[in-house]
Amino acid sequence: MTDAPSAPHTPLPTDKELVLKVIPMPADCNANGDIFGGWVMAQVDLAGSVLPARHVQGRMATVAVNEFVFKQPVRVGDILSFYSSVARIGRTSVTVEVEVYAERFATQGRYMKVTEARLTYVAIDASGRPRPIPRPADTADGTAITE
Ligand SMILES: CC(C)(COP(=O)(O)OP(=O)(O)OC[C@H]1O[C@@H](n2cnc3c(N)ncnc32)[C@H](O)[C@@H]1OP(=O)(O)O)[C@@H](O)C(=O)NCCC(=O)NCCS
């Protein structure tokens, strides 16, 4: 299926960072011919971990998918762009918001928001238990970790 050149266009977020781009393949489809929601969730989990990794500085685990909304179907050949921002840094956890935008196969350069999610990651130690997130003063050179 193709979209006309007048396909809807959503402005990209200016308060979030581009953390991943990926193109779904036919093997990622469900029985409807759209992309399987579980595949999208896996990509969001990966994309969501990028900003927390800067703060956690080591092992971490996804503790919660706090919210996940499939706003539009994803199709084979879409170029998906994942934008993320940090919503909260706690003692051991980092919560992020992730938005996914699709450029349809025949309308490159026009973006449509297809998914939005909020996830929480926990810094863990070698035994898999929560550990405190290093503060800027804890880093090697004492500089702040930036977004
Ligand atoms: C992640 C894990 C180590 C956390 O252990 P825990 O004993 O539940 O940890 P705590 O209750 O002390 O909570 C740790 C942090 O997570 C946060 N948290 C826990 N559950 C949460 C939820 N549902 N939503 C948001 N944050 C949550 C807590 O608020 C705390 O954050 P803070 O220290 O910044 O305030 C443990 O739950 C675990 O191993 N889970 C499996 C992880 C995993 O396998 N993920 C992949 C799934 S396929």
Could you write a compact summary of the structure shown?
The chain is mostly beta strands. It has helices at 37-48, 50-56; strands at 17-22, 60-70, 79-89, 93-103, 111-123. It has a 5-stranded antiparallel β-sheet with strand order 1-3-4-5-2, covered by helices on one side.
Task: Let me know the number of strands.
Answer: 5
Question: Helix tally?
Answer: 2
Report helical residue fraction: 10-25%
Structural class: mainly beta
Helix and strand sequence: EHHEEEE
User: Which whole number gives the mean pLDDT?
Assistant: 91
Low-confidence stretches: none
Distance between the termini: 38 Å
Strand sequence of the main sheet, in spatial order? 1-3-4-5-2
Q: Biggest sheet: strands, sense, closure?
A: 5 strands, antiparallel
Pfam family, one: 4HBT
Protein name: Acyl-CoA thioesterase YciA
Domain HotDog ACOT-type: 14-127
EC number: 3.1.2.-
What does this structure look like?
Belongs to the acyl coenzyme A hydrolase family. This is Acyl-CoA thioesterase YciA. InterPro entries: Cytosol_ACT, HOTDOG_ACOT, HotDog_dom_sf, Thioestr_dom. Helix content is 13%, strand content 35%. It contains 2 helices and 5 strands. Strands 1-3-4-5-2 form a 5-stranded antiparallel sheet, with helices on one face. The longest helix has 12 residues. The radius of gyration is 17 Å and the shape is elongated. The mean pLDDT is 91. The site of coenzyme A has 14 residues, from strand 2 and strand 5.
